[in-house]
Specification:
It contains eight helices and five strands. It has 213 residues and is α+β, with helices and mostly antiparallel strands.
Length: 213
């Protein structure tokens, strides 16, 4: 129905939960979008003109437009909803909390603990996601420009380290969003994380630095 919207940001509103609110002015029409917290932070500031990829969920008495930074997030969001019992808000929480790379890798390596970091996702839901989505995620990963999602021996080894670090940081009180941010930053900087201790040190340094909102 709507593939994307290009307009000026009018309102950015944090809810404190996995789903935030964004209002775009598109040629004088205000569109209210439900977006993940990570999307809200990275899209821009009020007054900026941005393009937001969209997916529309229609219920009996409610139409909701969900917004994403790129089409890959939108595609993964729609794939998640094919899993039994996963609605659009839970799917948005998964994509927004874990991100494309982490979520795809977690499904391919059957990392239930990582998937369970998303709000509202328990062990049974994580198991169901892996069971029902693994084949589809394998096909989805092939369409992405970045092929680091493909399962390999080294990938599985790194996944085990990332899982250990996730558990350590979680026990220290960090949220799934904060942990994902730190691990993503480690990958972006090319950190050769051969040990959990090294990755924990990097993550703590990143998380203790002032964050730009």
């Amino acid at each position: 129905m709507l593939a994307y919207l290009k307009g000026q940001i009018v309102v950015k509103e944090m809810s404190g939960g996995p789903v935030d609110r964004l209002v775009l002015d598109v040629n004088g029409v205000g569109y209210e979008l439900a977006v993940a917290h990570s999307t809200l932070l990275l899209l821009g500031q009020p007054g900026d003109t941005v393009t937001v990829h969209t997916s529309v969920a229609i219920r009996e008495n409610e139409w909701t437009i969900f917004g994403f930074r790129d089409n890959s997030e939108r595609q993964l969001f729609n794939l998640l909803q094919s899993v039994t019992g996963i609605g659009p808000k839970l799917a948005l929480g998964l994509v927004g909390t874990l991100g494309i790379e982490t979520l795809v890798e977690a499904v391919l390596t059957e990392n239930q603990k990582m998937i369970s970091q998303a709000p509202g996702v328990g062990t049974k839901v994580a198991q169901r996601i892996i069971l029902e989505l693994k084949t589809k995620i394998e096909a989805f990963s092939q369409t992405l420009a970045n092929k680091t999602f493909e399962p390999s021996t080294s990938g599985i080894g790194k996944s085990a380290i990332f899982e250990e670090v996730t558990e350590i940081l979680g026990n220290l009180g960090y949220t799934a969003t904060e942990i994902h941010s730190a691990l993503k930053k480690a990958k972006e900087t090319g950190l050769a994380a051969d040990s959990a201790e090294e990755l924990v040190r990097f993550s703590l340094k990143h998380l203790s630095a002032p964050q730009v909102v």
